[in-house]
Amino acid sequence: MQHLTINIPDNKVTFFTDLVKNLGFTIEGSLPKNILTEKQIDLVNEARKQIKENPDSFKDWDEARKTLNIE
Prior knowledge:
Layout: H1 13-22, H2 38-53, H3 61-67
C-alpha cells in the first residue's frame, strides 16, 4: 500500500476529505478543526490589548450595527 502526503488549503479540507471518503480511500490520523493561523491569533491579541487599554474607543454593538450597510 502507498502513503501520500498532501498539502491542502484550509478552506478546501472539508471538500477534500469528503471526496476521499466518497472514492473509498481512508485518511489516517485526525484533522485539526478550526485552528487559527498565527496572523489571526496576533489580530485577536491586538484587539484584546486595545480593548483593555482604551475601552471607550469602541462603539456599543447596537450603535455599531446601525452603521452597517447590509443589503
